[in-house]
Amino acid sequence: MSSAQAQRIDDYCKIIWGSDSEYDIDFETDDYIHYHAVVKKDYGLSFGSPLTITSLCPSMEAASRELNRMLSLWAAQVRSGKPMTNEQKLEIFGGSRGEHKSVLEQFNAELEKRKTNSDAKQT
């Protein structure tokens, strides 16, 4: 990852999760064929839980591009000051070509169904 891209990603992290922290960007692989990027809060001697993770990508460079894409969209949404819409969630987390949108739509539908059932039980 170039230093300019690393700086952009760090800037996006500060917009999304706060400028009072440092963030660790890690690229992980188990097989040297598929890679993903992980963002964690850096506490100095330890790291926090993952804040976001990209989907699997065919190279470290592709994972870096995907993380940059996700965070740029997410940071723009945060800057807008408006609640994140379902369409924005799908655009940010649905993959660079939208390959994960259908899974996220199914997940969101299930969450909404459970929320509706929970609300019905409380009334």
What would you report as the Rg, rounded to the nearest angstrom? Answer: 16 Å
Low-confidence stretches: none
CATH topology assignment of the largest domain = Double Stranded RNA Binding Domain
Number of strands: 3
SSE run = HEEEHHH
Mind explaining what this structure looks like?
The structure is a single chain. The protein has 123 residues and is α+β, with helices and mostly antiparallel strands. It has 2 domains: 1-81, Double Stranded RNA Binding Domain (2-Layer Sandwich); 83-123. Helix content is 54%, strand content 17%. The protein contains 4 helices and 3 strands. The protein has helices at residues 3-17, 60-80, 86-93, 101-122, and strands at 22-28, 36-42, 47-53. Strands 1-2-3 form a 3-stranded antiparallel β-sheet. Helix 2 (60-80) packs antiparallel against helix 3 (86-93) and helix 3 (86-93) packs antiparallel against helix 4. The chain is globular, with a radius of gyration of 16 Å. It starts with a helix and ends with a helix. The mean pLDDT is 94.
